[in-house]
């Protein structure tokens, strides 16, 4: 996997992925940014949510659950000192659909956290405490 990050101006950068997608990153105005894009640490948090959500959707589809939406809400805490690394992250999954079995969702969340999510594994190996929970929303037919 490869990526290129190019400086645009001030503290703004454009990242290009190997698959051809671009993302603009920018610092906060307090550091000379203009709020033109997500902060780099926000992208790490979003990447974790995307990685875990990918697992949840894939696992639930394989277990034939009739899901219509999966939302991952993340809350993170960072160290007070430099480097201001993540210390705690909580992932809350909101799973919507028809006749979804709670046991299947619990299993999907557990498998993502303990086996499949590369981003989660990398962060927990680095000392980040990651917790998970979920809620089911049954949609009427």
From TrEMBL:
Source taxon at top rank: Bacteria
Coiled coil regions, renumbered to chain: none
Name by which UniProt lists this protein: Putative redox protein
Species for this entry: Acinetobacter boissieri
